[in-house]
Amino acid sequence: MSGLQSFTLEFWDYAVFAAYFVVLSAVGLWVGRKKKVDAEDYFLAGRSLPWWVVGTSFIGANISSEHFIGMIGAAYVFGICVAMSEWSNIWVFSLLIWFFIPFLLISRIVTIPEFLERRFGPVLRQFFAIVTLISNVVAFLAAVLYGGGVALQALFGWDLWFGVLLLGTVAGAWSIHGGLKTVAYTEVLMVVVMIGGGLMVTVLGLYALSGDSHSLLVGWKKMIAANQATAGVWQDAVAKTAGPIARVAEYNRLSVIQPVTHLVSPWPGLLVTFLSVSLWYNVGNQFMIQRVLGARNIYHARMGIVLAGFLKIVLPLIIVVPGLILFAFHPEMMLLPWSEVRPTADKGYVSMLQALVPVGLRGLFLAALFGAIQSTLNAVINSTSAIFTIDIYKRLLRPRATERHYVRVGIIASMVVMVIGILLAPAIEKMGKGLFVYIQTLYAFFAPPFASVFLLGILFRRINTPGATTAVFAGFVFAILLKLYVAYVPGHLHWLEPYVMQAFTTWVFCTCLCVVVSLLTPLPKPEKVTDRLTLNWRSLNIGQELGGPWYRNVAFWWLVFVLIVLGLVFLFSGLFL
C-alpha cells in the first residue's frame, strides 16, 4: 500500500469542490448577514433553530476527520464493534429527549459552566470551564486538524503542516463570521455532502469487492466472509491480533459483544458508557449541547435529537463498513508489529480511496472530508469562545461590558483557539496510538468526574457543593492513579486496561464520594436546589410538546429509533454472523 501514488485532481474534481465552497459561502453569508450585537444571539443563534437544523448540526459537530480517518482505521483493526460508539447513543439520546431537554431549556442557561455555578458555586464553574477549554483544544481541535492533515498528506502529497494550516484557516472562518446560527445552517450542507461522499466510498468499495459481478450484494457477502476470517491470510491476521485486541485466543470481528478485556469495546460499555463519556460528550459538552440550547422550543430540540439518532444509525455505513472492506482487501496490514498496526490503519483508508475513487468523484470526497472537518471545527471554535467569553472573561474580568464588546471578545477568542489547535495538531502523530484511540482515551479521562456530579446534581437535591467539588477534584487524581496502576503495576487487573472500564471505574468512585461527602455535610442552600436547577418530577414537562399526529410525534419516531438500534445490536451480537 505504500507504493500507491498521491491523488490527481482533474477539471471536474476542481469544479465539484469549487461548487461546494460557492454554495457553502452563499449559505454562510446569507445566514450570518445580520450583525451580531447580543451574546445570546451570537452563541445560541437567538434560540431560533428548527429541529432539522438542530439534528443535522448536532451530528455535524460530532463527525469529523477522526471518524473518516480514525474510526475507519479502528474498524479495520477491531471490526464491527466500533459501530457501538454510534449505536450506544440510544441511552443518552433517550435521556436527552425525555429529561434533559425540557429541564435545560426551562433553565435558560447559555453555557453548562453557568449551570454548574448556579447549582454548586463558582469554583466548580471555573474549573469546568478551564478543563473544557483544554479538552476542546487537545481532544477535539488538534485531533481533527491532525486527521485532516494526514488525509491531505496521503491523498495529495501535501506537507502535514501545510494541510493543517489550510484546514484551520478555511474551516474556522464561518464560526468566527456569524456565530452559532451560521455554523448550524452551514453544517446542514456539510452533513449532506459528507454522507453523500462517504456512501460513495462504501458503494465503490463493495463494487470493487464483488469483482466481475458488479453487484453490491455480492460485494457485501464477500466483505462478511472475509471478516469472518475462517481461512487464509484473514484467519492468520485475526489469530495474530486476538491477544493484543482482547486477550483471547479466538476473536469475532462481526460481533458487538466483546470480552471485558477488549481494548475499545468491552461488553459492559454497552450498558454503562452513557453514564460517563456519553453523558459528558452529548449533554455536558458545550459544543454539542449548544445546538439544543439554541432550539426554538422543547419540541424542536427533542425532534432534532430524534433526527440525530437516525443519522447515528446510518453513520456506520460510511465510517465502519469501509474499515471492514479495507480488511477484506488488505488483511496483511494486521500482520505488522502491533505498535504499527493502528497508525498504519489510519492511513490505510486513504490508500483505499486512492485505488477506488475515480477522477471526477475525488472532488466530491474532498468536499465531504472538508465538510466533516469544517463542521466539527466550527462547533468547537464557537463553543470554546462561548465558554471563554461568558464563563471566564465576563465573569472574572469585565462583568459590566456591553453585549457588543462580548461578541468582539468571542471573535478574538475563536482566532486564538484556532491558532493553538494548529500548533498542537502535528504532535499527535508522535503518540502512535491511532487517532480513534487517542481521542477516546482523552474522553475517558475528562468525562467521568463531571458526568457524575452533573447527573447527581440534577437528580438529587441532597447533593451539595462540598460533595460535588470533592468528587471532581478527587476524581481527576483517581483517574491519573488508575492509569499509573495499569501502566506500571505487574499483575494489575486486566479488565481495567480498556479506557471504557477506566472511565466507568472513575465514575463509580466519583459518584460514591459525592454522595458520601454530601451526606456528611450540611444541606445545600434553597437557592441551589430550585426547580430550575434540579428535576422536579411532578412539574417536569415530559409528556408535553411532543408534536401532533404520529408522523410529527416525538414519541413515535423515538420508539422507531430505539427498535432499529436494538435490532442491529441483536443482529451483530455474534449469534448470526
Give an overview of the whole structure.
By secondary structure, the protein is an all-alpha fold. It contains 25 helices and no strands. Helix 1 (11-31) packs antiparallel against helix 10 (173-210) and helix 4 (65-78) packs across helix 22 (435-459). The longest helix has 38 residues, at 173-210.
The string of secondary-structure elements, in order, is HHHHHHHHHHHHHHHHHHHHHHHHH
What is the straight-line distance between the termini? 29 Å
Question: Going by CATH, what is the homologous superfamily?
Answer: Sodium/glucose cotransporter
CATH topology: Sodium/glucose cotransporter
- What is the annotated CATH architecture? Up-down Bundle
Instruction: Tell the overall outline.
Output: globular
Q: How many helical elements?
A: 25
Low-confidence stretches: 1-5
Total individual domains: 1
How confident overall, as mean pLDDT?
Answer: 84
Number of β-strand runs: 0
Helix content: over 70%
Give the radius of gyration: 23 Å
Derived from helix and strand composition plus strand pairing, the structural class reads mainly alpha
CATH class: Mainly Alpha
